[in-house]
Write a structure and sequence with these properties.
By secondary structure, this protein is α/β, with parallel strands linked by helices. The chain contains eleven helices and nine strands. α1 packs parallel to α3, α1 packs parallel to α4 and α3 packs across α4.
Length: 335
C-alpha cells in the first residue's frame, strides 16, 4: 500500500540502491541472527519497536529503521540497512506503510519476518476527504469490534489493499492483537526464551486492555463526537470509541487540502461545535493553524505516535496515548 506517490527520481535512486545491495543482502544471510547471544530484532518504525522492546526485554537487541523525528512514510532504506535486514534474527514491519521497507525485505530475505498487518484486520479510512462524514459511528464505539476473535482474523479482506488505513496501532485493541502476533514471532525465532516472551506479551496486552478501558470511560458523557486533525491517522481510534474524524488531508500527511475541503471543514466545525483543530509533532502545523485561526478555534496536539521525539508529550507509546486521551477529553467536552 503506497500511501504516498514516490517522486520518480526518489524511486529510481531507491531502486538503484537496492539493486546494488542485492548480492550483499543475499550472500550475507548467514549466521544465527544474534549478537552476544541475544536475538537481533529490526523494527521498521517506532510502534513496532515499542512492541519488540516491551516483549523481548533483555533477551533481545532492538534497532529501528526509522530514526526519531523522521516521518516514517518518507523513509528510504540505505544499502547498509538492507544488509542488516538480511542478518537480523527477526524483522518486524507493517506491510504497505513504508514501500522502501517492503522492497528491502524482498531483497534481503530475512529468515524470520513478522508483518503486523497479518495479526489484525485493516480497513479503509479517510479516503473520501472531500465530504465523507461516515468515518466512525457511535455504534462502533460501544464495541463494534469488541467481538473480534483473539486469534481468528479470517476476514482480513483489506490486507494489502492500496486504500487500507495503516494506523492500526492507534486502536489499543488492534495493537494488542499485533502484540500477540509479535510475541509468537519472537517465540518462533528464539524458542529458548519463549517463556519470557509469553510472560511479557501477557503483561503488555493487559496494559493495553487497561488503556482501552480508560479511553472508553474517559470519553463518555461528551458534548461532541467530532474532531478535526491534520491527516486521517485516527480512523481506527474514532471507530473504536464512536468518534468522528474529520481530516484536513487524507492518509497522506503532506497532501494539500482542496478549497472545497477547507470550506467543508468550516461547515463541520460550526455544525458540530468543534472547538479545537489538532496538529501533529512530525508534520507541519501550518494548515491546521491557518484553519483554526480562520474559525477562531484553539489548537492542540493529537499525536499519531509514528515516532517519539523531543516534542512528544510522553516518553513512550502508553504515555503519549494517555496524553492524546486528555487532549480529546478537553476538545470533546467530556464531563
Amino acid at each position: 500500500m503506497n500511501i504516498r506517490r514516490l517522486r520518480p527520481t526518489t524511486a529510481l535512486v531507491g531502486a538503484a540502491a537496492l539493486g546494488l545491495t542485492t548480492l550483499t543482502a543475499c550472500s550475507s544471510n548467514v549466521g544465527d541472527g544474534r549478537t552476544d547471544g541475544k536475538l537481533d530484532v529490526v523494527a521498521s518504525f517506532y510502534p513496532l519497536q515499542f512492541l519488540a522492546q516491551r516483549i523481548g526485554g533483555n533477551a533481545i537487541h532492538v534497532s529501528s529503521l526509522t530514526k526519531p523525528g523522521v516521518e516514517p512514510h518518507d523513509l528510504e532504506i540505505s544499502p547498509r540497512q538492507t544488509a542488516d535486514l538480511s542478518k537480523a534474527g527477526l524483522v518486524v514491519y507493517l506491510k504497505g506503510l513504508q514501500p522502501s521497507v517492503d522492497r528491502a525485505i524482498g531483497q534481503a530475505e530475512p529468515k524470520h519476518v513478522a508483518d503486523a498487518a497479518s495479526y489484525t484486520t485493516m480497513e479503509d479510512h479517510g479516503t473520501e476527504v472531500e465530504g465523507d462524514h461516515d468515518h466512525g459511528s457511535a455504534d462502533a464505539g460501544e464495541g463494534g469490534h469488541g467481538s473480534e476473535g483473539e486469534e481468528g482474523h479470517e476476514g482480513h479482506a483489506h490486507s494489502g489493499d492500496a486504500a487500507a488505513d495503516p494506523h492500526i496501532w492507534l486502536d489499543p485493541v488492534r495493537y494488542a492483537q499485533v502484540a500477540k502476533g509479535v510475541g509468537k514471532a519472537l517465540e518462533t525465532a528464539d524458542p529458548d526464551h519463549a517463556t519470557t516472551y509469553k510472560k511479557n506479551t501477557t503483561a503488555l496486552v493487559k496494559e493495553l486492555t487497561t488503556l482501552d478501558q480508560d479511553f472508553r470511560n474517559g470519553l463518555k458523557d461528551r458534548s461532541s463526537d467530532t474532531f478535526i486533525t491534520t491527516h486521517a491517522a485516527f480512523g481506527y481510534l474514532a471507530e473504536r470509541y464512536g468518534l468522528r474524524q474529520e481530516a484536513i488531508s487524507g492518509l497522506d500527511p503532506e497532501s494539500e487540502p482542496s478549497p472545497a475541503r477547507i470550506k467543508g471543514l468550516h461547515g463541520v466545525a460550526k455544525k458540530d461545535k468543534v472547538n479545537t483543530v489538532f496538529f501533529e509533532t512530525l508534520v507541519s502545523d501550518r494548515t491546521a493553524k491557518t484553519l483554526a485561526g480562520d474559525l477562531h478555534l484553539r489548537t492542540d496536539v493529537l499525536d499519531p505516535i509514528e515516532g517519539i521525539g523531543d516534542k512528544s508529550k510522553g516518553d513512550d507509546y502508553i504515555q503519549v496515548m494517555r496524553s492524546n486521551l486528555k487532549a480529546l477529553q478537553k476538545a470533546l467536552g467530556t464531563k
